[in-house]
Amino acid sequence: MSISSPAGNVLSVLIVDDHPIVVDGVEALLGEHFRVVGSAHEGQAAIARARETQPDLIVLDVRLPDLSAGEIVRRIRDVCRTTSILLFTAHASSLAAMDALIAGADALLPKDAGTTNLVQALQALAEGKVPQPPAVVRSSAGDKPPGVELTPRQREILRHVAAGATNREIAEALGLTPNTVKSYWQQVLQKLGARNRVEALLLAQDLLVR
After folding, report:
1. Which residues touch 16 (CB under 8 Å, ≥6 apart)?
2. Do 152-208 and 12-141 fall under one CATH topology?
3. Is residue 148 a contact partner of residue 154, using CB atoms and an 8 Å limit?
4. First to last CA, the chain
5. Pairing relationship of beta strands 136-137 and 107-110 according to DSSP bridges
6. Residue 149, exposed/middle/buried by CB under 10 A (0-12, 13-18, 19+)?
7. Domain residue spans in the chain?
8. Does the 12-141 domain belong in CATH 3.40.630.30?
9. What does the alpha-carbon distance between residue 2 and residue 113 come to, in Å, rounded to a whole number?
10. What is the CATH number assigned to the segment(s) 152-208?
């Protein structure tokens, strides 16, 4: 069943991913619900296609060969001011994903979330609603809750997470056990009111530069 805008037009979508097989699969899925206006495998091509087609929605991977996801989002925002951008990636906890959300992407959905979640997230964005979990929404990870203060050890853990380190790598660097690192990280998430790494890093931007 096609999903239409309030004006009755079938919503248009542009798909951006550097893996042709992923593009083909997503296009086949979304073609049942949306009007697919094109695809791109690189950032420059995505920006050009977005400018040309002015899609209602863009499905964007965060790792492309020529430009960072944050740069792509910023440049698309310059040429498509009303387009909703959904990050669809296997690297949901990466710094690239966080940068793209900060740059103006509307939400992020892990690629392992399933096809139903992808359609529902896009429909929610098109209707001006907040996609439900497992999507991460930029607006839901806005200002840091007032009064949040991390201990020196918690801030140290946060900085290692922001650098992309795993719990095991952090444990080795700090002389801790992985379980201890996990415990500290859970404390950080709880203090920030975040559900995952991406939300935590968005909420803790000011803490990371102290």
Report:
1. 39, 40, 41, 43, 46, 58, 59, 60, 61, 64, 72
2. no
3. no
4. 50
5. antiparallel
6. exposed
7. 12-141, 152-208
8. no
9. 21
10. 1.10.10.10
The per-residue pLDDT for 142 is 46
Instruction: Specify the DSSP class assigned to residue 21.
Output: H
Between residues 91 and 154, which one has the greater pLDDT? 154
Q: How many CB atoms lie within 10 A of CB 88?
A: 25
CB 103 within 8 A of CB 77: yes
Q: Peptide bond preceding 145: is omega within 30 degrees of 0, i.e. cis?
A: no
Q: Convert the pLDDT of each residue in 194-203 to its tens digit.
A: 877 777 877 7
pLDDT digits 0-9 by tens, 17-73: 999 999 999 999 999 999 999 999 999 999 999 999 999 999 999 999 999 999 999
Overall residue count recorded for the chain in this entry: 210
Spacing of C-alpha 202 from chain mean position: 11
- 3-class DSSP state of 15: strand
Q: Which of 95, 120, 135 is nearest to 29 (CA)?
A: 120
